[in-house]
């Protein structure tokens, strides 16, 4: 990680890591699919530890799941202090990519060979994660459409915000 990747606090900018994650996900997906792929979504980008200038960052990626035209790539990011050899796991992200054909439409990807129980666990976990995400999206969309601001304003009373307009209540 070179100095020009740092933010104002001297740590590595999150966007640099996101860009690396996206590129590695692309390489992994495109190799499996044998075609061009696009990023659809990135889950689990919680930066647990800062990455320092000078750290050697490694990204370990695998195809965890394939659907008909989509693939989920799991990426584990490790930052290593080259002076003392300490390694830190900074985050694990799951990137959904879709394979595109020459017509720019989603195209079917090859099945995934599960060689170990760990491979099967990752595949099953990806299915579970997708289900949870769909449930969350439905619940969130419903909550959003039903959210009445006036009826819910009291919930802001113990939050760190200030109401800056005249309210009825
Ligand atoms: C991703 C994209 C191809 C999906 O197109 P679409 O017409 O909705 O295609 P489909 O409905 O057939 O979905 C294709 C696959 O994407 C998956 N998909 C679509 N939206 C998704 C989402 N939000 N999260 C996860 N998977 C998603 C579908 O489940 C399907 O997977 P499957 O074939 O394995 O079952 C289209 O939205 C696209 O091109 N997006 C822009 C991608 C891009 O430019 N990325 C770079 C961002 S800068």
Automatic annotation (TrEMBL):
Family: Belongs to the acyl coenzyme A hydrolase family.
Keyword list, A-Z: Hydrolase
UniProt protein name: Acyl-CoA thioesterase
Source species of the chain: Dyadobacter chenhuakuii
Domain of life of the organism encoding this protein: Bacteria
Gene3D superfamilies in alphabetical order: Hotdog Thioesterase
Residue stretches making up the HotDog ACOT-type domain: 1-103
PANTHER family membership: ACYL COENZYME A THIOESTER HYDROLASE, PROTEIN VDLD
